Predict the 3D structure of the following.
Amino acid sequence: MSKKTQGSASRAYARIAKIAGVAGVAAMLSGSALADDAKLDGTGIKMGLFGVGSANAYQRANIEGAKAAAEKYGVDLTVYTGDLDVQVQKQQFDLALDRKLYDVFVTALMSGDQLCNTIKKAVKENVKVVLYVTTACGGVPDGVTTLVNLMTPEAFRLWWDHIFTTNEPQEFAMLALDPNVDLTRINKTQMEEAMAAHPGFKLVSYQNTNDTVPGAYQMAQDMLRAHPDVKIIASASGTITQGIVQAVKAAGKEGQIKVYDFLGNKFTLDAVKSGAVTASMPGLPYTEAYVAVESGIRAMKGESVPKLINPAESLKIENGPIITKENVDQFKPEY
C-alpha cells in the first residue's frame, strides 16, 4: 500500500473513531467475538434478529455470529429472515411490536428509508434497537443503540482510494449489488467522489448483479467482450468476485486484469494468495452480528454503547484493513 493510501486509511478510521469514541470502540471490541466478556450476562433478555435473508454465505455467517453470541451469554434469540423483501421484513417487525415479543431488535434492514418509521416506532415503544450492516432513516436515529458496520462510507472510500492510488488512470468496470439496497447506493456515491478526486479514471461499465456466481460470470463475460481493453474490475462482494475470476480465466486474461474485491471471503482471499485477485476489503459478517448481540445486551444492562462500531477496528493486520498478497496470511476469513 502506498504512503498516500495509508494516509487515507488513517484519516478514514480517525473519522470513525471521532464518531464512536476511541475508548468506547476499544471497550466494545474487547468484548467481541475476538475476546468474549466473561462478565456479560444476557439471561432473561428476549431478542429478535431481523436479517435481510439467508440466501448467501454472508447472511448465513451473520446468523451464525448472532446465534453464537446468544448462546454464549444466555440470550433468548429468535431469528427472522426477510427473504430480501422489505414488505416481509416490515410485517415481521409489525408482528413483533404488536405482540411485544422482544426487549431488543438486532437488525440489518432491507431499506433504511422504507423502514424508518418502523424503527422509530420500536424506539418509542422502548425496544432497544441495534443496527448492523445497514443504517436507518439515513443514519443512526435518536434512540437507536448503535450501528455495527464495516461497510461505512469511509470504508468504501478507502477501498476506492486504494484502487485509484495503486494504478495509473485508465478505464475500469464495476459489478455492484442490488440497486435497491442502501449500501449499493453508498458505494456508488463513494466511487463517484473518488473518481472526482483521482482524474483520468473512466468508468466504462457499471452493472448491478443478483449476487450469484453464475450471474456475475455472465455479466463479466459480456463486459469483457464489450470492453476488451479493461484492465481493472471492481467487485462489490466475494460471490461476485468468484464469477469475475472465472470469466477472466475463460477469456484467457489471467494476469492481465486486476480484480478488486469488497467483503472478501475464503474464495477471494485464496485468490489474493494466487494472484487472481489483487486486493480485498475483507467481510466480517460473523463479528458484525456477534458484536451487535453484545451491544443489545449492554444496552439492556444500562451500559454506554458507542453510536458506531466498525469491526474492522479489531483487525490487527499490517497495512490493513485492505488485504493484499503481502498481508493475506494475517487474516482468517469469516465465511
Observations:
- Residues 31-150+284-304 form a domain with the Rossmann fold fold (CATH 3.40.50.2300).
- DSSP finds eleven helices and eleven strands in the chain.
- The chain has two domains: 31-150+284-304, 153-282.
